Every structure is written in C-alpha cells, then in structure tokens.
C-alpha cells in the first residue's frame, strides 16, 4: 500500500500536479511566471511556471493608450523592452529620468517591441539586473495582453485537466485614473468574461492601493454581480508605490496603520488576504538562532484572512542572512511563520520543497 501511494504521488509529480494537494493547503504563486528562468511576464514564462506545478500564475496589469490591458510589471516599458531604441522620442521626463510609459503607446505599437530580461542603463550601456538569468535580448518575446494570457492558462487547464489559478494585480490605479482610465473596472470586466466571478473560482485579485482595494471589494464587485477573492498588498510608504491626491498634489499613501494592532481586522473588512513584503513578517535583524517574527500572520489568521508574502528569490544576495538556503527560507516562512503561500520567481523549487515536506508529513 505504501509503495502504491508512493507510486501515485510520483505519477502526480511527473504530471505536474497541483501543490495544493501535494503541499497540503499551502500554495505556490509564480511571480511574473517562471521569471527566474525566462523574461518576466512573457507567455513562455507563464507556460514554464504552469508545468513546474505552480498553483497560481501572477499577472501585473497596466493599460495602453487604446485601453487594452497588458501584462507588465511597470507602467513604463523601458526596463524590459527595446522601446528606447524603437521609439527614441516617445518618453516623458520623471524626476530627471526618461521613461517610456505604456499608456502613451497603442497595443499595436507595444506588440512591435522585443521583451528581454530586466536591465538598467549605466553610462549609456544596458546592464542586466539579474546577471545569471536568461541572457538579455536573445530569442524573441513579446508583451502579452491579459486576454491572451487568460486564454493560455484556460487552454492549458483544458488540455491538462488541471485547474491552475490566476493572481492579477491592478498596478497604479491612481496613475491610470489621473490619465482618465478605470483600470480596475476594465480588469474586472475581463475576469467576468472569462468566468472568474465567485470566491470558488481560482483567482485572487491584488492591489497595493488600499482605497482601490476597498473600492473593488465594496463597490465594483457587487455592481458587477461578482464576489472573487481580494488581496491587500502592503508596501513601505517610502517606496512611493501608491500615491494619493491631497490639496491637488500627489503624495505617498501612508501605510503606517497597517503595522499597528487592529490593522488586520480593518483589512479583513474588505479583503480575503494580505500580500506583505518578507521583512514585514521576519525582521532582517533575525539570526538563524533567533528569528524576529512579527504578529502580522497571527493577527491575519485570527481575522480569517490569508497571508502570501513576496518575493522569494535565490539570486545572489536575495536570501536573508538568517536562512541557510532558499529551501531553509521557505521552511521558515511556510512552517515557522505559517504563511499560506509565497510569491516566488522559482516556482519549481517551492513546488518541490512543499511536495517533499508533505511526503515527510505523511511518513512516505
Ligand atoms: O504582487 C505581489 C508582488 O508581486 C509585489 O511585488 O512589485 O513584484 O508587483 P511586485
Ligand atoms: Ca505583483
């Protein structure tokens, strides 16, 4: 019997079965796809993450000039495409820097761009951000639309018989609104078109902007007859991730309240989960023998909401000093801190980690 069970589990592993079975209820979210191996947010990176056995694939969403939703992390195009070479004059100046905003380009124009590993320009030269990852400007990749990606995932779900979920993020709703666009409404309409309408469907909708997350939950979802899971992402105020208009001027949204007692109760009024940065759960001053764990997970769980921290990477310098390895870091977060899932660029490693942990738990 034990042999048969082992065989069945091995077969599921080979077929790329969901970790939600093999890893108990803990999940793996492929951050921007299999972005440790292929350029982020390309359909190729999503297909790779799908077959690594991730439970959810992440989509960051921004809008084009002609109101199309594209899957891009930044609301500008210059970090991961050749836009500065193809459209040298189509930039805006932001804090003294040239930036090529997606919202200034039509989808047809964006489709002419080559997508690559992320880079910055130093002394006129493009320098790859993660040097050991897929080589910059090789092969051929493009920016996908949200719709193309939903079709890919639903197509794979049909051909494999699996049910891998999606984890879209509404990027910078304050910026889109200032440009006359309601990105949340557009994203929800697309989700509805593809059948993601209830909490039973495999979707989490995430956003850093608390005013917008609340609006989605309390206004837009009821208005559209939808009731999907919503996640409040948590940032440091200093990142300027969310801006709000005060006295006619954009100022950074102040996240301080989210780190105080009672915050999780407030968030639970409008969200099903939180997405904190790792150091918000385990402080950086932790050591291997003394982890400094905050109350965030405990309080979130006490208020019935899930916790999915970001971002788990194994690149140089990305594993905190208190963890001996990538897997040790996963062990700390999944089983000591007790998070419900993690966003990772290396879904394969997290899937295998959870499977091994579950086999051990079952004594296999
Ligand atoms: O959305 C969770 C995680 O992806 C947040 O970080 O900046 O990669 O979108 P970011
Ligand atoms: Ca994201």
Automatic annotation (TrEMBL):
Domain annotation GP-PDE: ranges: 26-354
EC number of this enzyme: 3.1.4.46
Molecular function terms, GO-annotated: glycerophosphodiester phosphodiesterase activity
Signal peptide location: 1-22
PROSITE patterns to which the protein is assigned, alphabetical: GP_PDE (PS51704)
InterPro entries tied to this protein: GP_PDE_dom, PLC-like_Pdiesterase_TIM-brl
Alphabetical UniProt keywords: Glycerol metabolism, Hydrolase, Signal
Reaction catalyzed: a sn-glycero-3-phosphodiester + H2O = an alcohol + sn-glycerol 3-phosphate + H(+)
Source superkingdom: Bacteria
Enzyme class: hydrolase
Pfam families: GDPD
Annotated family: Belongs to the glycerophosphoryl diester phosphodiesterase family.
Protein name: glycerophosphodiester phosphodiesterase
Species name: Halodesulfovibrio aestuarii
């Amino acid at each position: 019997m034990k042999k048969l069970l082992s065989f069945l589990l091995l077969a599921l592993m080979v077929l790329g079965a969901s970790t939600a079975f093999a890893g108990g209820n803990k999940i793996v979210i492929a951050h921007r796809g299999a972005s440790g191996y292929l350029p982020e947010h390309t359909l190729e990176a999503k297909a790779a993450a799908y077959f690594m056995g991730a439970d959810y694939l992440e989509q960051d969403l921004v809008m084009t000039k002609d109101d199309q939703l594209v899957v891009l992390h930044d609301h500008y195009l210059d970090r991961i495409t050749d836009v500065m070479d193809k459209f040298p004059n189509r930039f805006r100046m932001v804090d003294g820097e040239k930036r090529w905003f997606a919202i200034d380009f039509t989808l047809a124009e964006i489709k002419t761009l080559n997508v690559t590993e992320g880079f910055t320009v130093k002394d006129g030269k493009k320098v790859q951000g993660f040097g050991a990852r897929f080589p910059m400007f090789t092969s051929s990749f493009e920016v996908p639309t949200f719709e193309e990606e939903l079709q890919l995932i639903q197509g794979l779900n049909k051909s494999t018989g699996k049910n891998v979920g999606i984890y879209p993020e509404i990027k910078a709703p304050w910026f889109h609104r200032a440009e006359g666009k309601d990105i949340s409404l557009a994203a929800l309409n697309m989700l509805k078109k593809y059948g993601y309408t209830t909490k039973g469907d495999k979707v989490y909708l995430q956003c850093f902007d608390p005013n917008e997350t609340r609006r989605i939950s309390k206004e837009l979802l009821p208005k559209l007859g939808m009731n999907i899971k919503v996640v409040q992402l948590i940032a440091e105020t200093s990142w300027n991730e969310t801006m709000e208009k005060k006295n006619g001027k954009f100022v950074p949204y102040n996240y301080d309240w989210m780190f105080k007692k009672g915050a999780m109760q407030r968030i639970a009024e409008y969200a099903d989960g939180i997405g904190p940065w790792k150091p918000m759960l385990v402080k950086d001053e932790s050591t291997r023998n003394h982890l400094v764990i905050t109350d965030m997970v405990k309080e979130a769980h006490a208020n019935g909401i899930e916790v999915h921290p970001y971002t788990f990477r194994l690149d140089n310098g990305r594993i905190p000093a208190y963890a001996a390895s990538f897997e040790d870091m996963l062990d700390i977060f999944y089983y000591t801190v007790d998070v419900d899932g993690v966003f990772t660029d290396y879904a394969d490693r997290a899937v295998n980690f959870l499977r091994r942990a579950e086999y051990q738990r079952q004594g296999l």
